[in-house]
Design goal:
Layout lengths: L2 E5 L4 H10 L4 E6 L10 E5 L5 H7 L5 E4 L9 H21 L4 E7 L23 H20 L2 E7 L1 E2 L6 H6 E2 L1 H13 L5 E6 L11 H5 L12 H6 L7 H5 L4 H4 L13 H11 L1
Parallel strand pairs: 1-2, 1-4, 2-3, 4-5, 5-6, 6-9, 7-8
The structure holds D-galactaro-1,5-lactone.
Length: about 280
């Protein structure tokens, strides 16, 4: 049985995932806070991802790492920097030094939250983070790409939508992922024999999805759940959107928070840039 380290195991995603994984792997759970209630096959090691020494200690001898640790929503820059940038670097670097090849990185829909809801995006779109938090997830994805290409590590990035037992609102009808579907995707990330660097969306088979998740399907993902089953109930309780922009963009309120620019401005295409350069000559 493989030994799998889970960072940030005391958080909500870790709590959902443990029962989906602990019958398949020996789980080494890690978090800042002690975790007392352990199931069979689980052990706990304390660790602060912002300390490289801690990460070198806890990554020793594992077959794979599921990196969930970090700050899970928008936060002040110093918090994001420590937990999500420095922390993520330490996890990848400790894995490299200890010869752990397989790293699963829990990225987020907020790495691409500035795409509109009427756009269907896949794993190849360029990132459009909607927050410092989303930006830190782009950093983690790109760090994974570097470590895969440079050090032959095997990196599986899951852009998680919203992991919860039930979809909470209209936006989550598009991005919800059930615990068992996320569990299936994580197991693919741990066990698939042919991973170099992949990005997949951590969402159930939602009818309203904004994602073309064909990359996950190619790797064998067959989601069992669809948020649509809960749509009537969710929509009757839906409150009016707090502002039009959070309704327009996939990232919801992460988009409109602290807004000072005009996200509706189109990103210039390569063609336009080339034309502008040609005009200047
Ligand atoms: C996330 O990335 C957060 O970790 C989670 O708390 C939710 O806010 C989720 O995105 C979401 O977009 O609903």
């Amino acid at each position: 049985m493989k030994t799998v380290l889970m960072t940030g195991a005391a958080g909500s995603v870790g709590t959902f995932l443990r029962p989906e994984l602990n019958t398949h792997y020996q789980l080494r759970l890690s978090d800042l806070k002690p975790m007392k209630k352990l199931a069979q096959g689980e052990t706990f090691v304390p660790g602060d991802i912002a300390r490289l020494g801690d990460m070198l200690r806890i990554t020793k001898g594992v077959d794979a790492i599921v990196h969930l640790g970090g700050f899970a929503v928008e936060g002040p820059w110093d918090v994001i920097l420590r937990a999500n940038i420095v922390g993520c670097y330490n996890v990848f670097e400790a894995a490299r030094r200890n010869g752990v090849k397989r790293v699963l990185f829990a990225t987020s829909n907020h790495a691409a939250g500035f795409y509109r809801r009427d756009q269907k995006i896949d794993h190849r779109v360029y990132p459009k983070p909607d927050s410092r938090y989303g930006l830190s997830k782009v950093f983690g994805e790109q760090l994974g790409s570097l470590y895969a290409d440079k050090y032959a590590m095997e990196v599986f990035c899951i852009r998680i939508g919203n992991a919860a037992t039930l979809p909470a609102d209209k936006r989550r009808l598009a991005i919800w992922v059930s615990p068992r579907d996320l569990g299936q995707l994580v197991r693919i990330g741990i066990d698939h024999p042919d991973i170099h660097f992949e990005i997949v969306y951590g969402v159930s088979g939602n009818q309203r999805s904004w994602y073309d998740n064909s990359n996950a399907q190619r790797l064998g993902y067959r989601p069992q759940d669809d948020a649509e089953r809960y749509a009537d109930e969710v929509l009757t309780k839906e409150k009016p959107a707090p502002d039009p922009l959070s309704e327009l963009y996939q990232g919801g309120t992460f988009v409109s928070a602290e807004l000072g620019g005009d996200p509706a401005r189109k990103t210039p295409t390569v063609k336009k840039k080339a034309a502008a350069r040609a005009k200047r000559k």
